[in-house]
Write a structure and sequence with these properties.
By secondary structure, the protein is α+β, with helices and mostly antiparallel strands. The chain is built from nine helices and 13 strands. It binds ligand DP6.
């Protein structure tokens, strides 16, 4: 099954002609507490295991899409035109190919991102989700979020979780066409929860998560025990969220991230995203935790860390990490997942 077939299947009953001049959609960035690492289908971004994330409230991408008169797509980020020969433009145009009524139709795509670029804040996740949502608006499909999630996944796996606020679970699914592999939000609200983004190095990552996770699946001798660990962590995380048990949430999140990075170390050739500054920060977190401060971290495909803590400890934690960017995931007006 290829991407084109999935898109055609989802959109077969819907309009091929834009209904409006333009479509706009905001998608929040998301951080996985239980990671997506490894695909059973690399074409459709179908994961081996389910994953669970927290969305970052007002931090994310807002994209506006309109038809473009010129004979190519025009793409801008934060008001700056992106070079059409850049990998970014090529990837996005390739994704937009799935949604052109004719090969001769092009789009103007303007994205505003309010997340610090290069901080490892899953910009591809909210980016693809915002593009899909904006296309939905432009064409007037009014698809349910579960179908937008499937379309977003075709751009980047983690985009499937960027269509909701709060906690989101992406069910791995079993079907070959991935029609059962979509995100869904958890009802739970946890207003005191805080996520801190700790930038220890702002250089772009050297190895993409796409290649890294595929190498892990193919060569790590420990990958076979990952699904079992994932299933347990997912269950524990959902229980912790339901009971608002912060220690359990933190312990499981941290352990899940460390296990993912341990898998990478056992990949051939080994993958190491941590830097000396990452390990120094981890050491500090563990030091203060031993002193009684409830502070945990997670780490994705880069050297930076995302900290988990509660509102009551915010002041103390900013004293330890003065440059921390603090996010209140549930502070978004009336919460609607
Ligand atoms: C470590 O979603 O970027 O952030 O599907 O190949 O685009 P592709 O991968 P991507 O991988 C994200 C990996 C992660 C963990 C996570 O977000 O679950």
């Amino acid at each position: 099954v290829n991407k084109c077939a999935v898109v055609q299947h989802i959109l077969k009953a819907y309009s091929k002609e834009p209904k409006r001049e333009q479509g706009t959609f905001f998608a929040p960035s998301n951080i996985a507490l239980c990671k997506y690492w490894g695909k059973r289908d690399t074409e459709l971004n179908l994961p081996h295991t389910s994953s669970l994330s927290i969305s970052l409230g007002n931090l994310g991408a807002k994209t506006t899409i309109a038809l473009e008169q010129a004979l190519k797509d025009r793409i801008s980020i934060n008001g700056k035109e992106v070079d059409e020969d850049s990998i970014f433009s090529k990837n996005l145009s390739h994704f937009l190919d799935l949604f052109r009524p004719l090969n001769s139709v092009f789009f103007r795509v303007a994205t505003e991102v309010n997340i610090p670029i290069g901080a490892g804040l899953a910009s591809s996740a909210c980016g693809f989700a915002a593009v899909v949502g904006a296309l939905d608006q432009l064409y007037g499909w009014e698809l349910p979020l579960s179908l937008l999630s499937i379309l977003g996944r075709l751009g980047s796996g983690s985009a499937s979780r960027s269509f909701w606020h709060g906690f989101v679970e992406w069910q791995a699914g079993h079907d070959a066409d991935g029609m059962d592999s979509a995100g869904a939000c958890l009802e739970s609200v946890w207003p005191a929860l805080r996520i801190g983004v700790l930038i220890v190095d702002s250089e772009q990552k050297k190895l993409s998560s796409r290649i890294a996770m595929q190498n892990t699946v193919l060569t790590s001798p420990f990958y076979k025990i990952w699904p079992e660990k994932q299933a347990r962590d997912l269950k524990d995380l959902k229980k912790a969220i339901e009971k608002q048990d912060f220690m359990a949430l933190g312990e499981t999140t941290e352990s899940n991230a460390l296990a993912m990075h341990a898998l990478m170390l056992t990949t051939s050739p080994p993958i190491l995203y941590s830097q000396a500054s990452t390990l120094e920060a981890i050491d500090k977190i563990w030091h203060y935790r031993q002193l009684g401060l409830p502070l945990y971290f997670t780490q994705d495909a880069g050297p930076n860390l995302k900290l988990l803590f509660l509102e009551k400890d915010e002041e103390a934690i900013i004293k330890i990490f003065p440059k921390l960017i603090v996010v209140s995931p549930f502070n978004i007006g009336a919460f609607q997942c």
